[in-house]
Design brief:
elongated; 12 helices; single chain; five-stranded parallel beta sheet; Beta Polymerase, domain 2; 2 domains
Length: 307
């Protein structure tokens, strides 16, 4: 296993060094390797250059002139390696949205629940949710009000201005819900099932929410941007057999349209192909989540677990 090779190499480099303290600890499924190094004992650049061949294989690490931090997930175990060349405090916390995306029927809810169970050791630092859960409640309230005011609504529903106002208010409620999720969990890493850009793609493909699409396209410039989009993909026929939200033709181009949007908005994404895979690619997904939130997770480990 690559992480074991990295740890062996670190131990080899630091062998016979007098002023190096190694702390080993295990918390639940998190294996901790903490090295405290005296400034004068060994040079940071030497250690970094010696480890580069291994570090290149990890996307989930950070390096600065006072520390090297690595957090890796493999086979339901987390490995945290911290090499400190001085007493340091990590302040570069980057709490962000991570989005699990894809057409209905691809397995978003299944993977979200699987990720949640694997990240159980980090419960305090993650929030898992859906982008329109509370929004749906607000929309249902609007629908009830419509019934009570049916005569008034029916007299003006044909007016184009009324349609614009309804679309504007609908998308306002949607973004208000996203902001509410963010504010309630401002100190956590938020993992959502779908986000604004999925909504735009669906509006575009279904082609019956043209006004909503235009309004939401404008609103996106004032919304939070996810740090990472994980786009799940499977065979269109398999997706359609599970959920018939979109036609097979629209399922085929869903991720293509989505990726174009993500690129134009400079959002990092990873396309996970599930086609005929016997092994669930959960390790790849979790390590991508770690890589985009390495500072926050390092801060949590060192302040709540290592102490």
């Amino acid at each position: 296993m690559l992480i074991n090779n990295l740890i062996e190499e670190i131990n080899l480099i630091l062998k016979n060094k007098n002023k190096i303290k190694l702390k080993l600890k295990k918390y639940k499924n998190i294996n901790l390797y903490t090295y405290e190094i005296s400034k004068n004992e060994i040079n940071y650049d030497y250690v970094l250059s010696s480890l580069n061949i291994y570090l290149e294989s990890f996307s989930n690490f950070v390096k600065k002139d006072k520390y090297i931090k690595i957090l890796h997930y493999n086979n339901s175990q987390f490995y945290y390696v911290s090499i400190n060349f001085d007493k340091v405090s990590i302040n570069d916390i980057n709490n962000n949205f991570v989005v699990i995306s894809g057409p209905d029927g691809v397995g978003k809810s299944y993977y979200l629940n699987l990720i949640k169970s694997e990240l159980e050791s980090f419960d305090d630092v993650f929030f898992f949710g859906h982008h329109i859960k509370d929004y749906k409640k607000n929309i249902s309230k609007i629908e009830k009000k419509k019934k009570y005011n049916n005569s008034f609504i029916s007299s003006i529903k044909g007016l184009f201005l009324f349609k614009i106002l309804v679309a504007f208010y609908t998308e306002y409620l949607y973004l208000k819900n996203i902001n509410k999720i963010k504010l309630k969990n401002f100190n956590k890493i938020i993992i959502l099932e779908r986000f604004l850009f999925d909504r735009l793609v669906i509006f575009k493909l279904v082609n019956v929410f043209k006004i909503n699409y235009i309004i939401l396209s404008f609103f996106r410039f004032f919304s939070y941007k996810p740090k990472l989009y994980i786009c799940l993909s499977d065979t269109p026929e398999k997706i359609y057999s599970r959920k018939k939200e979109l036609t097979i033709e629209n399922i085929k181009i869903y991720n293509d349209k989505l990726i174009i949007l993500l690129k134009s908005n400079k959002i990092n994404y990873e396309l996970i192909e599930l086609h005929n895979k016997k092994i669930i690619p959960i390790e790849s997904i979790i390590n991508s989540i770690i890589a985009s939130n390495i500072f926050t997770l390092s801060k949590y480990i060192e302040s709540h677990i290592i102490k």
